[in-house]
Amino acid sequence: MALTASLGRWQLSRAAQKEGLQTAILQRQQLPALDGATLARPLPAGQARELMHRGITLRGRWLPEHTLFLDNRPMAGQTGFYVFTPLMLTGSGRAVLVQRGWVPRHRIERTKLPPVETPGGEVQISGRIAEHPPRVYQLGDEQGGPIRQNLDLDALRAETGLPLATVLVVQSGAASQGLRRDWPEVATGVEKHYGYAFQWFGLCALMGVLLLWFQVVRPLYRARRS
Predict the structure, then answer these.
(1) Smallest Cα–Cα separation from 123: which of 69, 79, 176, 166?
(2) pTM value > 0.90
(3) Residues 80 and 103 sit within 8 Å (Cβ to Cβ)
(4) Which residues contact 4 (CB under 8 A, 6 or more apart)?
(5) What is the 3-state secondary structure (H, E, C) of the chain?
(6) Are 153 and 97 within 8 A, CB to CB?
(7) Domain range list for the chain
(8) Which class for 207: exposed (0-12), middle (13-18), buried (19 or more C-beta within 10 A)?
(9) Where would you find the membrane-spanning parts of this chain (predicted)?
(10) Cβ atoms of 122 and 59 closer than 8 Å
(11) What's the confidence (pLDDT) of residue 50?
């Protein structure tokens, strides 16, 4: 009982930490949008973490020859790709990998790339600074090519020779250029910890009831009958 109760309290403390993180994310999202100058220089790890989920506006030129399609990324119950294209920042020698949107995968030909429009010349986009997409299971190492299972920025820098920023930008806005952007809200998993806490406290209560029944109620009942 003591163990399950302590595990329940630990899950509640984890939930409190995640709620604090969720509050911090919401506060960052309300701050004024940053500009490309923020990512035009190398960012220390600590500063990069502090910028996560901040809004940002970028100006630059797409590099469509390096567009990647991240496979097995569902949206609205449909399987498809996250589309990434580097954006070379205006007035800077650095590029930012932008998660531009989502496209559905061909139902029969899994390796057939869907059409995606990429404007030429200078463009301006809005989005938010983000971490790498969650990894999915893959068999073996990536073999190159436009379709990937997971994203490795270090490997991509070596492959393309581009001075990519250490963070990504998830583009926001309405659907365009053949891409959907119905991104889910950033979640920290608070509900999961409350669910685990409920299970541990429920198990603790069950053991308490069984202990009361077998150690107190049942012996007392037998004693009265005898």
Answers:
(1) 176
(2) no
(3) yes
(4) 200, 201, 203, 204, 207
(5) CHHHHHHHHHHHHHHHHHHHHHHHHHHHHHCCCEEHHHHCCCCCHHHHHHHCCCEEEEEEEECHHHCEEECCCCECCECEEEEEEEEEECCCCCEEEEEEEEEECCCCCCCCCCCCCCCCCEEEEEEEEECCCCCCCCCCCCCCCCEECCCCHHHHHHHHCCCECCCEEEECCCCECCEECCCCCCCCCHHHHHHHHHHHHHHHHHHHHHHHHHHHHHHHHHHHHC
(6) yes
(7) 31-171
(8) middle
(9) 197-217
(10) yes
(11) 86
CA proximity to 129, closest of 52, 183, 58? 52
pLDDT score recorded for residue 161: 93
Which pair of tokens denotes residue 132? 């790498």
CA distance 20 to 138: 33
- Which residues touch 220 (CB under 8 Å, ≥6 apart)? none
Burial of 52 (0-12, 13-18, 19+ CB in 10 A): middle
d(CA 134, CA 191): 19
Beta partners for residue 68, in sequence order: 84
Residue matched to tokens 């926001």:
172
**226 residues of the chain, pLDDT tens digit each:** 888 888 888 888 877 777 777 777 777 778 888 988 888 888 887 888 888 889 999 999 999 999 999 998 989 888 899 999 999 999 888 999 999 999 998 878 878 888 889 999 999 999 999 888 877 776 556 567 899 888 888 889 999 999 999 899 999 988 888 899 988 777 666 778 888 888 888 888 888 888 888 887 777 777 777 6
